[in-house]
Design goal:
With 341 residues, this protein is an alpha/beta fold. It has helices at 30-40, 52-62, 71-91, 95-99, 120-132, 147-161, 177-187, 204-213, 227-235, 246-249, 252-264, 275-283, 326-331, and strands spanning 5-12, 18-25, 105-110, 137-141, 167-170, 194-196, 218-220, 241-242, 268-269, 290-293, 307-308, 311-313. Strands 3, 4, 5, 6, 7, 8, 9, 10, 11 and 12 form a ten-stranded mixed beta sheet that branches. Strands 1-2 form a two-stranded antiparallel ribbon. The radius of gyration is 20 Å and the shape is globular. Pfam families: MR_MLE_C, MR_MLE_N.
Length: 341
């Protein structure tokens, strides 16, 4: 992966208050998000920015003919996140505090050092550096054509880390049902925190079978594009740990609805990517969650998140606590403005 396309929204009020939010696409789709956002953004003008639920429904109806998932709601996500950032800033509170935080820090794990293309010694080195930087857990990728290579990889990292460091694996949907069950049973010996996306993201029944058969928790949900799609996972009891992505499912407003349902069903939470947003949402979840540490977005922002003793600290800055950097501005390829200054 060499490129991620971001859609940023900045919302300003007559009182010169500002909120920022973003959505993204790791593959195709970024230009489509931008095109849809341009079509609906004018409907914001004249609205009270505190009426986030009302605005969300208005934007959904503006694009009703293209549905309530995928590109349409991912375009709305950038706007919705900016509105929540603005609301927290107006209150003078970090977003987590505005939502009602259960904690001031969240368990953090690192993924960016464990990709399949990385040699095992490099993964070990990066894992050691992550732990030294205050990150608490390590996730590595599996899902190679030769499952024996996956097992050797996991064994090598577990031996390197020791038994006490939380370790997760992520198959990125690479296994079929028989393979996932077979390798899942073998992986039990390593005391994993979870096995992530062992099957196709939409195979709720297959994930449910694994969740019932294995002692190791099953985590999935990052690729789903709406609350409705996550509900199928929940109803099928297909995951022990749900991994929604706020920009992918339409923003903070639908994320909060999903979080309520997940908590009601006793599920753990480990949001996907975008720690700048998900740290706040995880801090407000009743059950002890995890947040995914990715330094990929650091060039976009002037501020940095802190990790200490295995946890990511909720910043005390109002809103999300971020401002866009000069580099972010330099990478901007197009923009459009509505309203008057």
């Amino acid at each position: 992966m060499t490129e991620i396309v971001f859609l940023f929204a900045e919302i300003s009020t007559e009182q010169d208050q500002h909120g920022i939010g973003f959505s993204y696409s790791k593959r195709a789709g970024g230009p489509a998000q931008y095109a849809h956002a341009k079509e609906i953004a004018g409907d914001l003008i004249g609205e009270d920015p505190s009426d986030i639920g009302k605005i969300y429904d208005k934007l959904l109806w503006a694009g009703a003919s293209v549905g309530r998932s995928g590109v349409a709601t991912q375009a709305i996500a950038a706007i919705d996140i900016a509105l929540w950032d603005l609301k927290a800033k107006r209150a003078g509170l970090p977003l987590a505090k505005l939502l009602g935080a259960h904690r001031d820090s969240v368990r953090a794990y690192n993924t960016s050092g464990g990709f399949l293309h990385a040699p095992i010694e490099e993964i070990k080195e990066r894992a050691t550096k992550s732990l030294a930087a205050g990150i608490g857990g390590i996730k590595i990728k599996v899902g190679q054509p030769d499952t024996r290579a996956d097992l050797q990889r996991v064994q090598a990292i577990r031996e390197h880390l020791g038994d006490d460091v939380p370790l997760m694996v992520d198959a990125n949907q690479q296994w079929d049902r028989p393979t996932a069950l077979r390798i899942g049973r073998t992986l039990e010996q390593f005391g994993l925190v979870w096995i992530e996306e062992p099957l196709d993201a939409y195979d709720a029944e297959g994930h449910a079978q694994l969740a019932a058969e294995l002692d190791t928790p099953i985590a999935t949900g990052e690729m789903l594009g709406s609350v409705t799609e996550h509900l199928r996972l929940i109803d099928a009891r297909a995951a022990d740990i749900i991994q929604p992505d706020a920009p992918r499912i339409g923003g903070i407003t639908p994320f909060l609805r999903l979080a309520t349902l997940a908590d009601h069903h006793g599920l753990q939470l480990a949001p996907h990517f975008a720690m700048e947003i998900h740290l706040h949402l995880a801090a407000a979840y009743p059950r002890e969650p995890w947040v995914e540490h990715f330094e990929w977005l650091d060039p976009l922002f002037n501020e940095r998140l802190e990790t200490l003793d295995g946890r990511m600290l909720v910043p005390d800055r109002p809103g999300l606590g971020f401002t866009t950097s000069d580099q972010c501005q330099a990478w901007t390829v197009d923009s459009v403005e509505y309203g008057t200054r």
